[in-house]
Write a structure and sequence with these properties.
single chain, mainly beta, Hypothetical Protein Tm1070, Chain: A, 2 domains, 16 strands, globular
Length: 231
C-alpha cells in the first residue's frame, strides 16, 4: 500500500533498490480512489531480473497525470510482486519518497520497507491496533489504508481514531469506515484537530480488521519532509 500525495506541489515516488536475490519478478500496480474503485491497472508494469544493480523509480504523479483524474481527489496504490519460477526473494527493498517541489529545501522523506508476505494466521485475527504522532504547525498527514495480500480482498474496516495531546488527558474520538482497497488521509490542518492539538499529540487507530496499514508525514515549511510507518 502506497499513499499518493500530490496536492500543494507534493510528489510521491517509489524507489526499488537493487535486487540481490536469485529471483526474477514482475511488479503489478493498481491505483484506487478513496472509495476503493480501481482507476488504473497494469499487471506488467515493471520486470525486475535477478541481480539488477540499478535504482529504479516509479513516479506516481506521472501515472496519475496521464489518467486525467481530478487534482482534488486522493488516490493510493497497491504494488504487487509476482514472482517467477516459484522463487521468492529473501528481501525486496522499497523506499517511499514523498517531497515538495518549488521550495528552498529539496529533502523528501525516505521510508524503507519490504514486501508483505501472505500470512494465513493474520486472517484469523479479530483486529489491529496502531498509533502515530501528530505535531501542530508541521502539517502532519497520516494515511490509513485497508489493503491485503489476499487476491480477492473484500473486507471492510471499521476504525476508531482517538486523538490525544500532551497538555492534558483530553481525548477526541472519531469513527471512520474503509472499504477494501481504500484509504483515509488525516491531516493536522483539519480545523477540529488543529484546535485540539496545541503543540504535540498522537492518534491511536483501533480497527476490527487485521490488514490496516499506514504512514505519517510531516511537511516542514522549508520543503523538507519527514515520515515513517505508523506503529
Amino acid at each position: 500500500y502506497v499513499p499518493i500525495l500530490r496536492q500543494n506541489n507534493q510528489y510521491t515516488n517509489l524507489i526499488i533498490y537493487p535486487n540481490f536475490s536469485p529471483s526474477d519478478f514482475t511488479l503489478k500496480i493498481d491505483i484506487y480512489d478513496d472509495n476503493g474503485n480501481r482507476v488504473y491497472e497494469n499487471s506488467d508494469f515493471l520486470d525486475i531480473e535477478k541481480h539488477n544493480l540499478k535504482l529504479l523509480k516509479i513516479n506516481f504523479n506521472e501515472i496519475l497525470s496521464s489518467l486525467n483524474l481530478s487534482e482534488n481527489d486522493n488516490f493510493s496504490a497497491h504494488v504487487i510482486t509476482n514472482f517467477k519460477n516459484n522463487k521468492i526473494p529473501t528481501r525486496i527493498k522499497f523506499g517511499l519518497n514523498v517531497g515538495v517541489t518549488g521550495l528552498r529545501s529539496k529533502l523528501p522523506c525516505n521510508i524503507c520497507f519490504n514486501t508483505h508476505i501472505g500470512n494465513p494466521l493474520l486472517e484469523g485475527k479479530p483486529g489491529s491496533f496502531h498509533w502515530a504522532p501528530m505535531f501542530h504547525g508541521r502539517n502532519t498527514i497520516i494515511s490509513v489504508g485497508n489493503f491485503s495480500t489476499l487476491r480477492d480482498y473484500q473486507k471492510d474496516a471499521n476504525i476508531e481514531l482517538n486523538f490525544y495531546r500532551i497538555e492534558d488527558s483530553s481525548k477526541l474520538t472519531k469513527k471512520i469506515s474503509l472499504k477494501p482497497n481504500s484509504q483515509k488521509l488525516i491531516t493536522s490542518n483539519d480545523d477540529e484537530l488543529n484546535n485540539f492539538i496545541k503543540t504535540e499529540g498522537w492518534v491511536t487507530i483501533k480497527a476490527d480488521n487485521p490488514y490496516i496499514q499506514g504512514f505519517y508525514f510531516n511537511f516542514n515549511p522549508s520543503g523538507s519532509v519527514s515520515g515513517d510507518h505508523i506503529f
